[in-house]
Design a protein that fits this description.
- Belongs to the histone deacetylase family.
- InterPro entries: HDAC_classIV, HDACs, His_deacetylse_dom, His_deacetylse_dom_sf, Ureohydrolase_dom_sf.
- This is Histone deacetylase.
- It is a single chain.
- The protein has 300 residues and is an alpha/beta fold.
- The chain has a single domain, classed as Arginase, Chain A, CATH 3.40.800.
- It has an 8-stranded parallel sheet with strand order 2-1-3-8-7-4-5-6, sandwiched between helices.
- α8 runs parallel beside α9.
- The protein is globular.
Length: 300
């Protein structure tokens, strides 16, 4: 069974102009249930994560600022959100969802998080709609608590996972792979173990060729015990922030390539939704829903 983390805590106090990136998170599970692709049994609602796990990655002072809502105005502006108790509560739940996803992936072969993939968060600050780096925290959980020796992060969000790359720089236990827009946010890129920076308007054929060539080689060379896959749909041509030119079918094929190779190698995978900012919310939800449906077809 594909177990999917879904935090139903929503920061209602956010001003209307800040709600757009958040709306999809309630619409995705609603669509999957409406279509009959999944049932309520597939979804679980995570509790807030323990501080002990967060502090494996994030600075104590930064965590305290989040919990006491004492980030400066500048620090809040960099995250993209005005800080609120609801927002922090939701972030704690999302992060636990990815950590719990590790256990479910080991049990069933694959698991998912409707949110997560908050790859811009650094140890001491948040950026780009990311407060806590859930994949980094979950990687430490797998290494420290479950004795996993090698983690592979496949980050196919259109924006480089700068926070994740920074956190695991020089750490041979985690290999970070990022395919992203060369001229896109973040303007200062960190160095992943392998970065592939794409030109503006990269199309399906070019993008999928890169994925087909690199994913099998990486899995074979790294021999990971666990994979995290960040399946952002901000690669779409319709995306307001993306600058690439993939179609919905191309995005779906990307997921098929990744999942089929992982399944062939029989490696547990946790996948997260990451970014998606197309003009029509229906486009975003459809593209994300495809990721879940492809995973179900491949693994279950």
């Amino acid at each position: 069974m594909l177990k999917i983390a879904y935090s139903n805590t929503f920061p209602h106090l956010l001003p209307p102009g800040h709600r757009f990136p958040m709306e999809k998170y309630s619409l995705i599970p609603a669509q999957l249930l409406h279509e009959g692709s999944f049932t309520e049994a597939n979804f679980f609602h995570p509790k807030p994560i323990d501080d002990e796990l967060i502090l494996k990655v994030h600075d104590k002072e930064y965590l305290e600022k989040l919990k006491t809502l004492s980030l400066s105005k500048r620090e809040q502006r960099v995250t993209g959100f005005p800080l609120s108790a609801g927002l922090v509560q939701r972030e704690l739940e999302i992060t636990q969802g990815t950590v719990s996803g590790v256990d479910y992936a080991l049990q069933y072969g694959a698991s998912a998080n409707v949110a997560g993939g908050t790859h811009h968060a650094y140890p001491g600050h948040g950026e780009g709609f990311c407060l806590l780096n859930d994949i980094a925290i979950a990687s430490h959980y797998a290494i420290d608590n479950l004795r996993k020796k090698k983690i592979l992060v496949i980050d196919l969000d259109v924006h480089q996972g700068n926070g994740t790359a920074f956190i695991f720089k020089g750490d041979d236990r985690v290999f970070t792979f990022s395919v992203h827009g060369a001229k896109n946010y973040p303007h200062h890129k960190e160095k992943s173990d392998l970065d592939i920076a794409l030109d503006d308007n990269t199309d399906d054929n070019t993008y999928l060729k890169i994925v087909r060539e690199n994913i099998p080689k990486l899995i074979q060379s790294q021999k990971p015990d666990l994979i995290f896959y960040l399946a952002g749909v901000d690669v779409l041509k319709t995306d307001k922030l993306g600058r690439l030119a993939l179609t919905i079918d191309g995005c779906k094929t990307r997921d098929q390539i990744v999942f089929e190779e992982i399944a062939k190698q029989e490696i547990p995978v946790v996948f997260n939704m990451g970014g998606g900012y197309s003009e029509r919310i229906a486009t975003i939800v459809d593209a994300h829903a495809n990721t879940f449906k492809v995973a179900r077809e491949v693994f279950f």
